[in-house]
## 1
Amino acid sequence: MHSLTQSSQHYPKRPSNDVLRTVPLMGTFVTIHVVGQVAGQEEDSGQTMRNEAVDRAFDWFRRVEECCTRFEPHSEVMQLANQAGVPVQVSTILYHAVQFALAVAEESEGAFDPTVGYAMEEHGFNREYRTGQMVRTPLDSNRPVSYRDVQIDAERETITLLRPLIIDLGAVAKGLAVDLAARELQPFNNFAINAGGDLYLGGCNPSGEPWSIGIRHPRSDNELIDSLRISNRAVCTSGDYERRSSKDDGHHILDPHTGSSANGVASVTVIAPTAMLADALATAAFVLGPTAGIQLFDRLGVDGLIISPELERFATRGMSDYR
C-alpha cells in the first residue's frame, strides 16, 4: 500500500445518509465515502442514487484491472505481451493507460518507463495477490527494452511492441481507476476515494471542511511526517517501505536505467488534478531524485513533497497552500 492515509477526522459522527464502503480490489482495499444527500432529491431517492453511483465507481476498478494487470495471464495487457511485432487493437481503457504512460516516460526522459514488467518479475514482484500464485512469463529476448519499443496508433487504437516485453501499468492503472470512479461521483460534490493511498478528495468532508489526510513517516510506521488539507485534487504517495522483494530485499520502484531499486528517495507525495497523473509522477520523481523530481513537478504544474533517505524535505512552493 502507498503511505498516504487519512489522518484522524475531526468532524461529527457520519450521518446516516452518507455512503461509506470498502472493497478489496487491485491488490488493496478501496474505500469510497460519499457525503450527504443530493440537492433537490428526496432522501430515499438520493440514497439510492448515491449507492448506484458507488456501485459503478467500484466497477471501474474491476474493469481497469481486467485490462491492465500483469498478474493474470488472460488479461489484455498480458495477451498483448504474446503478440510482439504486430499491431494489436486494444480496448479504450488499455490504450489510454499505455498512451499516458508513454507520455510520462517521454516527459521524464525514461525515469518512468512502463516496459519494466519483466524486470519486476525478475525481482520477485510477480505474486498474484488473490491466489498467491507466482507469475512466470517466458520471453524470447533478454535484450534491454524501453518505452521507445512501444508504438501506438491513436486513430486505430492499436499498440505494437517492437520487441518482446511486458508492460507494467502499476503506477498508472490504479490512478486511472480512481479517476474513472471520481467521474461517477462528481454529481455529489463531496466524496473521498482511497485506493491504498491513491486518493481523490472531492469537495469537503462531513463538517464542510477540506479533507484532512496524513502522510506516513517513511521510517516510522505509526507516525505522520506531514498532514494536508485537500479539496478537488488527487494525492498519491510512493515510498521505499511499501513492497519489498523476496529475492534481494529491494523495493518495487525500479530505476529503468539500472534495473535496480531506486535509492535516492524515501517517499514522494504528489498533489495533482488527476490520480493517474499524481501516481505516475510520484514514481518518476522517486527515480529522478529530489532535485530533478521537484523540477519535473514545477514544469508540469503540480505540487509535491519529496523525503530523502536522510529525512530531508524537498517541496514545491505550492505545498504550503495545503496546510
## 2
Amino acid sequence: MPFLELFDETLDINSTENYQLSLQLGHDNLSFCLLDTIRNKYILLRSYTPENNKKFSRDNFEEIIAKDDFLGRKYSKVSLLLPSLKSTLIPSALYDPAKKEEYFSFNHVSTESNIILTNKLAEPDSYLLFGIPKHLYEIASEHFPVSAPVHHLKPLFHHIGHTMLSGGDFLIHAHVEADFFNLVIFRERKLELCNTFLYRNLSDILYHILNVFKSMNIKQEESIYLSGQTERYDDLFSNLSLYIRGVKFAEPTGNFTFSYVFNETALHRYINLFTIGSCES
C-alpha cells in the first residue's frame, strides 16, 4: 500500500511517554503524527493509503495497527480523529442529549451499522453530531480506549478561529476529503455556512464553491483557504484561481513547531491532524 513517512533524527521509540499521538482513521487513509511534548515539536508523520483508490477494510486496519512499531506504544496523550461525511451542528442553547438521534435524522439516515457520536464546539457554540461505521468505532475503542473520537470539523473550526484573528469581513475555507468536501464561511466572525458536498470530479467542487459565492454575493476579491486532499498548482487550485483571486493553502497554527523534515511537506493536507491535540476540551 502507498506509504509516507517523515521523521526527525531525535525520534526515540523508547521515549513515547514524552510524546503525544494524533491519529486519523478513515476508509481511505490511516495517518498519525507524534508531538515531542518537551520541545513542542512535531517529529513524525506517517500515512497509509489503500491501493488503487480502494477502501480500507477492518482487516486492513487491524494489520496496519499490529505491524506499525509506534501504534502499540504508550503516550502522554492520544487524540483520535474520525472524518465523516455525515454531521450536523446543533446550537448549544437548543441541544438536548436525549434527542441526538432525532437531531441527526433531520439531515441524515441513521442505520444499524452506524453509531452517532457528539463533540462540543466552542466556536460556534454548538454540538457537533456525526455518524461513523460501528466497526471503525470498535477498532478505535479496542486499540485506543483512552481517546474520545473527534470529528474532523472540530479541529478545522479551531484552526479557522485562529485564522479569523487576522481580520477581514469573510473567512472562507474549503476542506477536501476523498469523496466529499466541507465549505465553511464566517462573515464578521459569525458562522454563515457550514455545508458538506459530495463530489465525483473537479467540476463538482468548482460548481458548488462558485455557486455559493454567487448566492451569498461574495466578491471574487475575497480569499479562500484550502486544506485536505489538494495540492499547490493542481487542477483544483489552478481552476479556482481563474475565478477567485486569493486562493491560499491553510497553514497549521498553534503552540508547536515542526522538525525541518517537514519543510517540503504540504502541511495543509494534515491540518486537522496537527490541530486536534490542542483543541480537545
## 3
Amino acid sequence: MHYIIGIDGGGTKTHCLVTDVQGQIVFECTGGASNFLVQGMENVSEIIFGLIENCKKNLNFNYSDVKMILLGTSGAGRKNDALKLEKVFTEYSFHRGVILNYFKVESDAAIALEGAFSGNPGSILIAGTGSILFCKDNEGRTHRVGGFGKILGDEGGGYSIGKKGLKLVSKELDGRIDVSTILKLSAKKFGINSPEKLIEEVYLNKMEASVFAPLVFDAAGQGDVESLKIIDEESEELILHLLAMVKKVGKPALNVALIGGLINHDNIYSRTLRKKMILEIPDINIKDPDYPPAMGAVLMAKEFLSSNNE
C-alpha cells in the first residue's frame, strides 16, 4: 500500500494526516508548534520527523511506501524560505538514515485554500493574528490581497484590533476619553490599572497585541462605544480586501470560506463582518470549508504526483 502525508504546520500545533493514494484517511495525529519563523528550521524538522515516525509506527509502513509528504506552514509563501526548509528537513531525515521520495513545502494559506474548496476555485479570507485573502480562479491561478504583516498591513486581524484596544486603555488612563468597559476588563484579566502597568506589560513583558483582541470583542458586546468603533473599522478593512479581490478577478460572485480564530467562530466581530459582506457584496456566498488544511496538503500532493506521472 502507498501513502500520502499532508501536514498543517501551525503556530500552536501541527496536524498530520496520512491517506492512501486515493485520498482516504487512514491515520492522523498532532504535535507541537511548527512555525519555522518562530521555532527555527531545525526544531521544526525535529517535530515533523517525529510525527512521521509516529505514523510509521502506527501503520507499520516502510518509508519507500510514502509517495509524498507535503507540509503547509506560515512563511512558506516566500519561495526561497520554502526551498530552504525542504533542504533542511531532507538533510535532517538523511542523517537519521531516512531517504524520502518527495518532501515539499507550501504556504499554510495554499493548503487552506485547497482544503476549503476540495481543490476547486474559491476564496479564503483568513483573519487570525494577521489577515490575508486568497482566491483560486477558474483557470487555477491564485490571487492575493493583503498579508503585508503587522507593520504594513494585517488590517482586520487580531494584532490590529488588539493594538487599537490597548490604545483605548492608554487614552482612558490619561483621561483623554471617557470611562469605558475595556479598562475594567483589562484590569481584571491583565492587572492593567495604571499607565506604569500598561507600559510594563507591553514593553517589558512583551505582551502580544493580538491577545487583547478578545477584550475588545467583550467590551463591544457590552455596548462599549469606543470598542464598537474598532469592530466597525476593522471589519470594514476586511470588506475592502474582498472588494479588491472582486476587481482583481473581475467576477462579482465570490465563494468565500472564513478561516481563522477571529472570524470562523461566533462572536460580535464575525457577526458584524458577515452582515457587511452580505450587504456590501450582494453576490457573495459564504460557506464552511470542505476540509481542514491538512487535507488540503494531501490534495496538493495528489495534484503534484499526478502532474509528475507518479
## 4
Amino acid sequence: MAALSKSFVLFLLELRNSVKALAIAFAATTLLLFFLSSPLLDALQEHLGGNLYFFSVAGPFLAHVKMAFFGALYLLMPLCMYVLWKAIGKPFGVTGQKLFWFVFATCLLFYSGTLFCYTVTLPYGIKFLLSFQSKELQAVISINQFVNFVTLFILAFGAIFELPVFMVFSSQVGIISRKTYEKNRRYAVLVIAILAAVLTPTPDVFNMALMGVPLYLLYESGILLIRILRLDAPKNVG
C-alpha cells in the first residue's frame, strides 16, 4: 500500500510538471483550428446528409469552439499520451525505449479506433436513428447537440481501442496477470456488452456488435501480447 501511495505521488508530481506546457499547446492549437473549424464541421456533417440548426445567438460560435477544441485534442493526442505515460511509467521504471513504445502503441490504437468509428460505426448509427423520421416527424438537429454527440462518440471509440496497451502495462508492473485476464473472460464479455450498449448511438444488435466485437478482439490481443512479451510472472510494485 505504501509503495502504491508513493507511486501515486510521483505520478501527480510528474503530471504537474507537464500540465502547464500541455495547456499552452492546447490553447494555441485550439485558437489556430478555430479558423479552420468550418471544414471540420462540414466533414462531420457529411454523415448527417441534412442541415443543422441553432437555437441561440451564440450557438454557431460555441459549436466552432468545440470543433476547434476537439481538433486540438485529436492532433495533440501523441503529446497527451507522452505526458500521461511519462507520469504513469516513471514510478514503475517505464522510460526510454519502453516509454516510446507505450506512447506509439497507444496513439496507433487511438487513431485506429477513431477512424473505425468515423468510417463504419458513426454512419450506420446516424442512419439508423434518422430512419424513424416520417412526414409528420421531421428531424431538426441542433448544431451543438450534433457536435457533442459526434465528437464524444469518436473520442470514446478511440479511448476503448487502447485497451491492449493498458492490459500489457498492468501485467508488466505486476498489477494484473495474464492468467487473471484469461480466467475473467466471461466478466470481460459482460463489461464489453454493457459498454457497447451505453456508448453506441443505437440499441440494435448490429451496431452494438460493431463496437463489442472489435473490443473483445482487442481484449484477446492484449492477452496474446502479454504471452508473447513474457510478462506472466507477477512482480511486486515498487
